[in-house]
Every structure is written in structure tokens, then in C-alpha cells.
Amino acid sequence: MSVKIALAGNPNCGKTTLFNELTGSSQYVGNWAGVTVEKKDGLLKGHHDVIIQDLPGIYSLSPYSPEEKVARNYLVKEKPDVILNIIDGTNLERNMYLTTQLLELGIPVVIAVNMYDVVEKNGDVINLDKLGETLHCKAIGISALHKTNCLEAAELALSSVGMKVKEHPHVFSGSVEHALAHIEESVSDKVDNHLLRWYAVKLFERDPEVDKELKLDKALMDHLDGHIKDCEEEMDDDSVSIIINQRYDYIERIIGTVLYRKKGEDQMSVSDRIDAVVTNRILALPIFFLIMTLVYYISVTTIGGWATDWVNDVFFGEYVNDAANVFMQSIAAPEWLHNLIVDGIIGGVGTVLGFVPQIMLLFFFLAVLEDSGYMARVAFIMDRIFRRFGLSGKSFIPILIGSGCGVPAVMASRTIENEQERRMTIMLCTFIPCSAKAVIISMITSVFFPGSVFMAPAMYFLGIAVIVLSGIALRKTSLFAGKPSTFVMELPAYHVPALKGVLRHMWEKARGFIIKAGTLIFTVCVIIWFFSSFDLSLHMTDIENSMMAAFGNAISCFFEPLGLGNWKSAVAVISAEMAKENAIGTLAVLNGVSDGASDAQMAVGIRSMMTPLAALSFMILNLFDPPCLVAMVTIAREMGNKMWAAIAISFQLVLGYCLAFSVYQLGGWLFYGMPFGIGQAVAVALCLAALYFIFRPAPHSKVSGKEREGAAV
Ligand code: GDP
Ligand code: MG
Predict the structure, then answer these.
(1) How far apart are CA 673 and CA 663, in angstroms?
(2) pLDDT (tens digit per residue) in 14-31
(3) How far, in Å, is the centroid of ligand 2 from the Cα of 488?
């Protein structure tokens, strides 16, 4: 029989860091709540029969959120052998609220006070022996980040396995304890003995799930209710509040006896001082914009851009191309094979691979921003802004994750408990440029807007703007009306990012990207090459007479109003639906980097296909039309229903098309001397309609008086 140790604690207390340290695995350490929705298993290092389970971060065991449901069901139903409760030593009060509940489950608990490095740095002292003694369990100070005492904590947990929980800490006062004792007595034959205290408290709180589960008969319920009511009358409060208040009173008393603070509470820590600037009401957004612009500037425009140029021009353009040519000649390869290798594969896949340096740099910086604690602040800042429009910061977390890839972003929206808000977030979160879209941005800016510092970050901010504005407009429709979810988040102290973690994150992204280039992008490039090299009778032909040209010409009328009447851009847009990088791979193949044509010549080919304005429209269309196939499938699955999936994809299709259309039509009229015609009139009408939907007053304020009261509590 294997032993199960469950890691339980508040979001951001360092559970995943500890889990990785104990199991040697590399789960994603997110710096915000909700990254771990499902529990994860791993084996304790050096033990083949000890399973460590990373539960989602929770503040309590009352199932208000999906994470709390997962954690509560696991702890109550599956009963781990021991709970390793991780608490953030710099915030005992908040963290111990959960501890008082865990101690009621009748399972041995070991308390690991994490972030002990920070506690010590602040000059504070926590009397761990006394803490353990008071709570009738063992307590140990650890630092998951610095790997101090982690294995010792696990050993301590192992040594507690099988111990009977004899006594509960004295959390509740006389009259509450009295009522609880009555409840325990009445249900003692109906529930597992070790869970008696837990069920008694839940019944006292009139927890609907427990009421449903136990199905006590009416007479017994009335009897219990009598006790609860007596208590409520005596304390002049409702039973739920009584329990909450007494837990906090108890925690306050304990903290008074175990925590010795060196500095006065009013003295600000370094983190607080940084936050005073970074989350300042006026400065917060400009600082965020500045930081992201700098990130794009370094990773896309300058250093990353130079590296990509080198990979494309020198590495693939000369070395690989020359080697391939020499090899082809040496084996006297037929012309078609030569063509396939050089144009189709090196041209298409090579061009996409050229972006690896940029992707790596971009993710290096994003990982640094996240691990240092800055991105958690961004979610906090965004919550403040979103809230004014009836959105919540909870929606911003999937969006942040979406800057890596849309698929985990869509899945991360599971943590949003409000159904309308969750659906809306699924629908909008892929508008933030993911790594594949970053490639499109980078390619188009370097070919059409070289030297522009702002074009690339502008696309990132446009993504955020489109999400916020769509969110505002959608919230006013009856489909998505509702009040925003509550968003509580711990802001972890800033720290210097762990280089190993950052590099691992960067490498994982690059690896995923390279694998995708070698598989999906490769396949699509070969297909594009094939159909653009042969005609219907399978004779090798000039590209303009190929099957691809026929197909492209047939659909190009749809793209004409976007300035993309050239059949090659139409094909690129369609192929990008398989994977967004294909937009670039396809343009490369179709502009035949043929017979050793250099990257510069390919750029000339692409420039001859479209004007800079059309290129902007091409980029916008690819950024805002539906995401790649895998992301679309994920959207459909997470929506859980065909109609909602259809609504989401159609919305993206219409939005992407209309945006590109308006940019092309109005941009041409304003800046390129196009006459004002039907296209411009339609674009103006679209913009006015968009403004109307964004600014009209919310038509049906569905929030009833009762709900408003609830929200105010
Ligand atoms: P989870 O939400 O509980 O899984 O927490 P994570 O493991 O994702 O950690 C949240 C943040 O706290 C990360 O930025 C960690 O690097 C940081 N962290 C975790 N443990 C420690 C620690 O012992 N000391 C310090 N200073 N930071 C830590
Ligand atoms: Mg975690």
C-alpha cells in the first residue's frame, strides 16, 4: 500500500514549488491563483511508495470555486494519509483560516511554514514548537524556493501517518462548542468517525452540499436546527458568520502567542515600496506599457530580430541551402525532389524556424516578469480596470497565459465560477498574440515596417484593447449579462527570478515550437508546395497555373475587400487556421525561395504581393480571426456545447474580418488617397455600430436587490 501525502494551502503559498522539489518534476509554477485547477500526482524522491498530491490552491473548504470543490472532495472522500498544509509564513492570518478547517478532517496534519527565508529576512520569529503544540500537530519552517527543510517536512509528514487525531484545537467558544457537541452526538452513527467534527461544523453552517449528502430526516434536522438557532440568538449572528468570526478570533490569539515581529507593522518592506509605484493608480498602466514595449523591442525588433535575420540569411540561406544543393547534385536528384527540399521544406519550415531566437527571448522575458511577481501585479491592476466594466481580473489570467499559447489559456478559464464570464473569457482570451502569432507580427513588421519600434508592441496592446472593448460590449448583451466574479489574490513578495526555472520555461516553449515546425508546419508546407507545383493533371508547372493558384483565385474574392486579393495571401490565411505559423511558412513557400533565392529576395516577393496597408490588414486578420484548429477544438470542448462553440467561433470570424476590413478601407482613404466609396461607408457604419455597442447603457440591469445585497457582503 502506498502512502498519500496531500499538499494543501492557499493559492501562491508555494505548493507547486514544493511539489517540484519533493518529486523532482517540473510542474508549471504560476505566480497567480488558479494555475493548478486539477490535482497532480508525483512520487516522493527516493521513495517508490509515497505519492505526493498537489491540490489546487484554496482559501477555505467551502466550495465557492471549482478549485475548492476539487480540493474538498478529495480531502473528504479520498482521505489522504496525511495532509501537508503549506502556509505562507509572511501571511499567517490569511493562511491559517484554511488550517483550522483542515484540522477538523480527522486526518493527521503537518504544517510547513513556507517562505521562511522571507520571514527571517524581515527579522520575524515564529515559535514553531508552540504553534504545533497549540494546534495538536507538528510544524516546521521551510523554504521551497531555497530548498531548505523540504524533504524534512515530507519525512515529518510520513512519521505522522497512522497517528490518531485525538484532540481538536479549541477554536470555538462555549456555546458554539456546545451546539457542535450536540450535533456530533446526533450524527455520530451516520458519518465516518474521523470526520465527525467536520460534518458537525458543516451542519452547523447549514452547508447545502452536506445537507444533501447526509439526507437526515426531518425530525433530526429540526432538532439540530433548534440548537443552531439557540446559538444564533445568543450570539446575535448567523451561523456561518459565527464560525468565520470565531476562526479568525482564534487565529489572532494564536498569532499573538507565536509570532514575534521585529519591525513595526507600519514599516514598509521592499515589495511594498515597489508596489507603491508599480500599482499606483496613475502610473500602473504606463509602466506596464513601457515594460511590454521594451520586451518586444528587445526580443522582436532588435536583438531577437538580428538573431532571426542571421538564422534565415546565413544559417538556412547559405549553410543549409548550400549543403542541400550539393547533396542533391551529388545524388543527381530529379528536379521535383530538389524543388520540394529547397522550396517546400527549407523555404517553409526553415523560415518558421528562423523565429526560434525571437520566441526564446520573448519567453525569457515573460517568464522573468512572471516569476519575479510582476505579472501578479498586472492581474491586480487589470482587475481594478476590468471591474469598472463589469469584468473581473479572473478573466485576465487566461489572457496572460494566452500570450504563450491559446490552448492552456482557454483551459485556465475553468477557474471562473460565473458561467457567462467564463464563456466570454474562453471566447476572447485567444485575441492576445500567442507565440505563433508573434511570428506573424515579427515577419510582417520586419518586411513592411522595418525600424518601427511600436508596430510589434502595438499589436499586443491592440489585442488587450479588443478584449476589453469586446468584453464591455458583450456584457451588455443578454447572453453575457451578470455580475463579475470575485477576484482575491495574494500578491507574493517580489524576488529575483530563479534562473533555472526561467530557462526551463524558455526552453519548453522553444522546444514546443520546434516540434510543431517539424511536424504540423512541415506537413502543411509540403502540401502547399505540392499543390502549388503541380496542375490538375499532375504535371509539374509554373506556380500561376497550379492547383493552389486555382483554389486561391476561387476564394480570393472574399479577401479582396481586405486588400488581400492576391491569391497567395488568401491561401496563407486559410493555411494559418491549421497553425498560425503557417501564414509565414506558406508565404515563404509560395514566394519560392527557389533556387537559393535569399531571404531578401523572398521579402521582395512578399512585398510585391501586398501594400504595407494590406500587410497590416493581413496581420490583423490573422491575429483576430479564429485561432488555430487545436485552440478551436479546445474552445468547443470547454464551452461544452455546440451552440456556444459556434457562437464563439463565429464571433471571432466576424470580428477578425471586420477589423481587417475597416483598417484597410479607412486606412486607404485617410492615408493612401483612396476615394470614399462603398467600402469606406460600410467601414464607417461598422465603427459606429461598434461604438454603439460599447457605449450604450446596459439595457437590462439584471441585478436584483437581493443579489446586490449579496454582492455587498
Ligand atoms: P502555489 O500557487 O501554491 O502552487 O505557489 P507556487 O509554487 O506557484 O509559488 C508562488 C510564488 O512563490 C512563486 O513565485 C515562487 O517562486 C514563490 N515561492 C515559493 N516558495 C518560496 C519560498 O520559500 N520563498 C520565497 N521567497 N518565495 C517562494
Ligand atoms: Mg500551484
Answers:
(1) 14
(2) 988 899 999 987 665 554
(3) 15
